[in-house]
Amino acid sequence: MLLQSINGGIRLNNRKLKVGVVGLTVGASHVKDYASSDTVKEIVLCDVDESRLKEIGDIYNISKKYTDFDKMLKEENLDAISIAVPNFLHMRLSIQAMEAGVHVLCEKPMARNAVEGRKMLEASQKYNKKLMINFNQRFLHECQTLKSVIDEGKLGEIYYVRTQWQRRRGVPWWYPLSSGKEVCGGGALIDLGVHVLDRAMWFCGYPDPEWVLGNTFCKVSKDEAARKGIQNFELEDMGVAMFRMTNGVMLELEASWASNRENEMITTRIYGSKGGAVLQREIGAVNDACNTVFLEIGGEVRNIPLEEMKISKKPNVRQAFLDAIIKDEEVPCTPQQGLKITQMLDMVYLSAENGTPVKFE
């Protein structure tokens, strides 16, 4: 709740929001968070799959359900909406919602490419509506804790970051992959890489990229795609890149849907002039995390478990979006940041296509 000053006194602002969610496969987690929020008064659902609509509606006792997005916007006076549909629809539905006066939380990636992302940013400015990108990795407690350590200057000047989301086998075959880049915009880089690239950039203060050398591969998944009836599977099952930032920071990115390795791993490693850090989570038979800060104390580098560095718990990504609306503050995951990530991924794909480094203009 928001505290407001009225004639020198303080009162609680009990404003509650009417929120929509479109796309209930990925959007189910959005519905769950909104249903548990004391700042949401009503939830409206939209999906082309009527059985999915009924399933999610029954779980959360939601009566208002639509299969037509246009009709929902026309009939429901929404304050905010989560856009959790396939990537090719992000731009159109986000702009349509903002034009209708609705604040938007758009799932990652912001768009298939930077051209679409820029149009979304321009729409948010034109219609004066908040546009937030669902970069939920930032809101993990370990990420929030490490960011506070960095902001306190304990790591000194960050000069090199390596960030990865590598799967052993984990192509999202449930997704409409048969249409490839037309629907998705890309493969593992735009699906998984976008998450760990954003959190790495966030740790570094979102510096401007200068150039990138990248490559993409589809070496593991083609046979499985053919067995599933997906011919000419064209999306990368692995992508890698090395970025140089204008401030000299080097950032290495790896992402894979399928690779011949140990269990799935999500890792971000940071090197600073005063200290370093690693966030590492293994996903598999044993879910294990190793989150550690390395600080030189008394002439000796010591390993300090991140859990020993206590900070207060922050709201989840959906609540942070709602709070920004109620308090009329800037959203924490801005469209400018979403656009920068999209531009960086565009340049990786261009570097892979050309076989040369690409300079950012």
TrEMBL record:
GO terms for molecular function: nucleotide binding; oxidoreductase activity. InterPro entries: Gfo/Idh/MocA-like_OxRdtase_C, Gfo/Idh/MocA-like_OxRdtase_N, Gfo/Idh/MocA_oxidrdct_glycsds, NAD(P)-bd_dom_sf. It comes from the Bacteria. Keywords: Oxidoreductase. Residues 17-135 form the Gfo/Idh/MocA-like oxidoreductase N-terminal domain. Residues 147-359 form the Gfo/Idh/MocA-like oxidoreductase C-terminal domain. Belongs to the Gfo/Idh/MocA family. This is Gfo/Idh/MocA family oxidoreductase. It comes from Paenibacillus whitsoniae.
